[in-house]
Specification:
Layout (H helix, E strand, L loop, with lengths): L5 H14 L15 H14 L5 E5 L5 H8 L3 E6 L2 H10 L6 E5 L12 E7 L8 H11 E13 L5 H17 L10 H10 L8 H11 L1 E7 L2 H9 L3 H6 L4 E9 L1
Parallel strand pairs: 1-2, 1-4, 2-3, 4-5
Antiparallel strand pairs: 5-7, 6-7
Helix pairs in contact: 1-7, 2-9, 5-8
This protein binds S-adenosylmethionine.
Keywords: Methyltransferase, Plasmid, Transferase
Pfam families: Methyltransf_11 (PF08241)
Protein name: Methyltransferase domain-containing protein
Length: about 260
């Protein structure tokens, strides 16, 4: 682990480790089979093309996106720096031969140069402590022409319409009680971490595009998250349906030149 941000990274790791057992219970984390899995998998399939490819999944957490990549027939290295998160993922995916778990720092993986055809991460970029160095690290790991897929969002500033959804969620919380699995139990700690992060004021594609370009990435493209949100709404209760309207989410792809 890189020493310069040791305290912040330790805090981030401890936060996620403590959330590992209930992480899948919070809406938006577990990816149910059916329309929602199909919607998350579509951009992955489009990016990777025919199997098998060597795919590095960064910050795999409890292994939900891992399943989608693996089920397409690819060879997956699923990395996370929280042993507690990896333990949940390992238990879910026991016995899968094309899947390797790796306890490592996504900002400094120690993996060999040009060893992957693609890198995929969901909900990691917002929590990077050194984004510029990290994008250069990801560039180094990809073979020429290799691709990066980022699922992420601006978790700091609700959309204009999202503010109304947020108010309705607070009202539901007051009437039926808060959903303690949805960040609530640790929200003060979450807020303190966010304040210390480079993207703590919110992650927008326009902020990371120049950083990716200066790391050497080309063909940077944005794709709508809306098909995923629509699929999530199909089986969600009212409070969780409202959650899909609160924040601006995006899917970004690019290519190593
Ligand atoms: C919001 S969770 C997302 C988990 C998973 N990607 C998903 O979408 O279900 C964030 C994950 O990132 C991991 N993480 C955060 N910073 C990391 C880093 N520098 N290196 C490796 N893992 C990291 C945490 O341990 C946690 O599992």
């Amino acid at each position: 682990m890189d020493g310069r941000n040791f305290d912040l990274k330790e805090e981030i790791r401890d936060y996620w480790s403590r959330r590992s057992r209930t992480f899948d219970l919070a809406f938006g984390h577990r990816i149910p089979a059916g329309p929602e899995a199909d919607a998350w998998q579509r951009p992955i399939r489009d990016l990777l093309g025919p199997a098998p490819k060597r795919v590095l999944e960064l910050a795999c957490g409890t292994g939900e996106v891992t399943r989608l990549i693996h089920d397409l027939g690819h060879d997956v290295t699923a990395l996370d720096f929280s042993e507690a998160m990896l333990a949940v993922a390992r238990a879910k995916h026991a016995g899968k031969t094309r899947l390797r778990f790796l306890l490592a720092d996504a900002e400094n993986t120690l993996e060999p140069d040009q060893s992957y055809d693609a890198i995929i991460c969901r909900h990691l970029v917002w929590t990077l402590t050194r984004p510029e160095e990290t994008f250069r690290e990801w560039f180094r790991l990809l073979r020429p022409g290799g691709r990066l897929l980022v699922f992420d969002g601006d978790w700091a500033t609700p959309k204009f319409t999202g503010r109304a959804a947020g108010l309705l969620i607070s009202l539901i919380d007051r009437i039926i009680g808060p959903d303690t699995n949805y960040d609530g139990a640790m929200s003060e700690r979450h807020a303190a971490i966010m304040n210390a992060l480079p993207f703590g004021a919110g992650l927008r594609p326009a902020t990371i595009e120049p950083l990716l370009a200066s790391a050497g990435f080309r063909d940077i493209a944005l794709h709508s998250h809306e098909p995923i949100a629509r699929a999530q709404r199909r089986n969600a209760n009212l409070r969780n349906r409202l959650r899909t309207f609160v924040y601006r989410r995006f899917i970004l792809t690019c290519r190593r030149s």
